[in-house]
Specification:
Elements: E1 2-4, H1 6-10, E2 19-20, E3 26-28, H2 36-43, E4 48-50, H3 56-62, H4 66-70, H5 73-79, H6 90-108, H7 112-133, H8 149-167, H9 172-184, H10 204-210, H11 213-223, H12 229-237, H13 258-272, H14 284-298, H15 301-308
Antiparallel strand pairs: 1-4, 2-3
Helix pairs in contact: 2-7, 6-7, 7-8, 7-9, 8-9, 8-13, 9-12, 9-13, 11-12, 12-13, 14-15
């Protein structure tokens, strides 16, 4: 691999070669047009590489399985384990996780515009990949990304939300808004003081602070990211419930936005399948059963039953079975 400067890359209108990050993961492909978002992605990496003429090692790499290429100790430590049952290929699993983690890092450096552009790149990749794989997906376990919950939960919520929005026949613009809303629905947690390592075992003070994240997220999306009220309202309302038992305001029924109704379901489902609730859930079918038990008093009926019946109900894969 040959080191290539960001200036050299940015000077190209169309990339003549593939670009790789320091972990050897391809982040841009030859032939791609360098959009402003891709230029920001390039500038976010201190070191980038392109391939030189094939060596014996390169030829050897061509004969490795995807599992051998991507399931490395370095990748697992940095991005979490890969889902061996997923219809999302290993390279894309890593690209989505690395893209979101890098965007958070940039946001924490107060480079809001750059972080926003990176989040939009992640959103677009989720939508594009969902279109490519949707005909081959049978189970929810085939969509889930694995790793640290705070990094994979927004991604999983977005992936499920895109599939559900397609099922509900939302148009292209609406699906883009829903995907972005899902990626940002928990962004208010970034401003919480202290680290909540286990949301199922919070004390009263921790819970009181945790319940502020919808309000913080709404404000951040509107004032810092400067996105629409449609997006911000999801962050505010994704813990509201149809019967008024949710929070922060206890609103109910049609007072909850349609996008928030969709993302509330996907958010809760991913939490259940990540052991981030107090419910004892051991596989995906049990999580679907728990959604049905919560029913229309908790979640909006149309997206709820569309979600439950969107893919096969017989998904008995346990969470440990997904890991290498």
């Amino acid at each position: 691999m040959i080191v290539v400067s960001s200036e050299e890359i940015i000077s190209q209108k169309v990339l003549p070669y593939d670009i790789y990050d320091e972990a050897g993961i391809k982040i841009l492909e030859a032939g791609e047009i360098l959009t402003p978002g891709k230029i920001l992605l390039v500038r976010n990496h201190e070191v980038l590489y392109r391939k030189e003429e094939k060596t014996f090692e390169d030829i050897h790499q061509d004969y490795l399985s995807d599992e051998e290429k991507y399931n490395t100790v370095e990748n697992t430590k940095k991005y979490g384990p890969l889902n061996k049952k997923s219809k999302i290929d290993f390279e894309t699993q890593i690209e989505l996780k690395s893209g979101y983690i890098n965007a958070l890092s940039v946001f924490n450096q107060n480079d809001v515009n750059r972080a926003k552009a990176m989040i939009l790149e992640v959103r677009d990749k989720i939508i594009k990949d969902s279109q490519l794989i949707k005909k081959n997906v049978q189970f929810f376990s085939e969509l889930k990304l694995l790793g640290e919950h705070k990094h994979t939960h927004p991604l999983n919520t977005a992936i499920y939300s895109v599939f559900l929005a397609n099922k509900l026949e939302y148009n292209e613009v609406q699906i883009m808004e829903i995907a972005l809303s899902a990626l940002l629905h928990d962004i208010g947690k970034i401003n919480l003081t202290g680290e909540i390592t286990d949301p199922t075992k919070m004390n009263k003070n921790e819970e009181a602070g945790y319940r502020k994240h919808p309000l913080l997220g709404h404000k951040l999306i509107k004032t810092e990211l400067k996105l629409s009220e449609n997006i911000a309202r999801v962050a505010l309302q994704h813990h509201e419930r149809m019967d008024g038992s949710g929070w922060p305001y206890g609103i109910s029924s049609t007072m909850i936005s349609e996008y928030a109704q969709i993302i509330a379901i996907c958010n809760h489902f991913d939490n259940m399948t990540s052991s981030a609730t107090n419910l004892e859930i051991s596989n995906f079918r049990e999580a679907l059963r728990a959604l049905l038990k919560a029913g229309s008093r908790t979640f909006s009926p149309k997206p709820l039953y569309s979600f439950v019946h969107m893919l096969s109900y017989g998904d008995t894969a346990t969470f440990e079975e997904l890991k290498f």
